[in-house]
Sequence to fold (258 residues):
Amino acid sequence: MPNEPDLAITFHEVAKSFTNRDGQKCQALKNFTVSAESGRVTCLLGPTGCGKTTALRILAGLEKCDSGYFSVNATRNADRSPALAYVSQQHTLLPWLRLEDNVAFPLRLRGVSKKERRRAAGAFLDKVGLAGKERLFPHECSGGMRQRAMLARLLATGAGLWLLDEPFANLDEKTRFVLEDTLLALIRENNISALFVTHGIEEAVYLADRIVIMSPSPGHVVANVEVPLPRQRDRLSSEFSALMETIRENLDSAILAG
Fold:
């Protein structure tokens, strides 16, 4: 009998509702059950409003589920687990801090000395292609540079599980492709487990080891698709295109089913 996979994240029948401005109850997640294995990239793929971001916010301790439970590294309902680091679509760099101080902020919270913070921040910025940009403020950086700095700050957290909520959605295609490769290299080099939210089929097929396809609201899982393609993936290959078409058919069926 094969060994059970080592699970970084588990959701079990999670439900979450919100009340909108008109006082109406809107269900974001219903019977949401999914797992993400350690050392792999798992993508949540679905249309806008299917609860992808809500799932990440629950893991990050920013929302509470109404029912069901989740586990992080086998710890149930771990509130703001130090094992987790979260990046949203919009960068959260502090505008009054230079890039090196933004990256070093998690180290500052842990009481690391200023000298060691500066050394570590420089090394992390170098890893994401921002060597020599340490003294820039966020407003002096392009969107791609800001997202690179966010990746560097992820490294500074020391977390082994990254929650990534469409971090490249606002970037041009060429920059997005480069940063996807940067992200995969960081994940591989640092043995990171990642839960990545996207509504882009191509992005999911390029990044993921497994794709979890979600329905529209209320969000729930309609399919799990293993990605058998080797790294480095060729977006122009027939195998890549065929898998994209399979994912598209699953997603279209989920949207039509509503």
Remarks:
- The two ends are 38 Å apart (CA to CA).
- The chain has a mean pLDDT of 89.
- Helices lie at 52-59, 99-109, 114-127, 143-157, 173-190, 201-207, 238-257.
- The first strand starts at residue 7 and ends at 19.
